[in-house]
Amino acid sequence: MGKEYLLQVQNVTKRYRDKLALNDFSMDIRSGEIVALIGENGAGKTTLLNIICGYIKPSVGLVQYKGENIFEKPLTIQEFGILIEPQFLDYISAEENLRLLSQLANRKQDIRIKELLEKTELYSSRKKKVKEFSFGMKQRLGLCQCLLTEVGFLILDEPFVGLDPIGKEIFKQTILDIAHKQNVPVLFSSHDLDDVDEICDRVVMISKGNKQLDQPLEHKQTYTIKTECSISGDIRRSLLEKCSDLQFFEDKIIFQDENLIIDIQKILLQEGHYICGFSVQKNNLKSLFGMEG
Question: What does the pLDDT look like over 257-293, one tens digit per residue?
């Protein structure tokens, strides 16, 4: 992953008369990074995305893409693929909508359009008028729309809302491919922690316009070995000499390094302990917020 910051949001504040939508908000995004923006409805997520896309000017602050101020040089955001409330012409087909957009961009992209419609499983519905599409199908067509040209940065507002499980998987795989294979950063908002947990590298939380959290999301697992009785101090010391980063709780040993499993088992068996239970728990966003998984 590249170390350079492609996008920098610096001390952005947005006021609407007496309402403070964003308060002194800063964040940076690197190449190939998937960043999830989480928070309740009205927290400021969509306002932030609209500012980054240049649709709304901040009251105070700066947004830079590749070192350029997007409000002084608006053409810098031509590389953005944006999915915020996609708009279509309802009375023409999905394929015609995409063709029209490619003509507006002065490019003939029949092969690209076919690839995108196939990737989003809309190819069989390509001749249907968009007014006949479900909300989830329109979301997928919106994904085609924002990927019609090569993108340098992908911005998605609540992309998983209204999608069935197949649609969600299509979106998630597309996001992972774009970020990790093409090294394109992805910023998306969501209020569903399970969706965020599956794909993001970093999570940023907004509450009432303020940044509350900004940290990498490590997809670690916690292993628990249960023995038939409490583990004595001597055996704990023997285990810690061979295996660091262990936690003990009566008859349980808790750790996060999968490579320690065999060594722990050997020592316990040498000391005459029987293993009567073993469990694996995925650490996720819900555990980070103290919610049940």
Answer: 778 888 888 888 888 887 888 887 766 666 555 444 3
pLDDT in tens, 87-122: 899 999 999 999 988 887 666 678 889 999 998 999
Burial class of residue 238 (count of CB atoms within 10 Å of its CB; 0-12, 13-18, 19+): middle
Read off the pTM: 0.75
| Neighbour tally for 18: CB within 10 Å | 5
- Locate 245 and state its tokens: 């980063």
**Measured CA distances, 131 to 99, 127, 128, 248, 281 (Å):** 17, 12, 8, 60, 44
Whole-number Å distance between alpha carbons of 201 and 178: 13
Measuring CA to CA, how many Å separate 10 from each of 28, 39, 75, 131? Answer: 8, 20, 20, 40
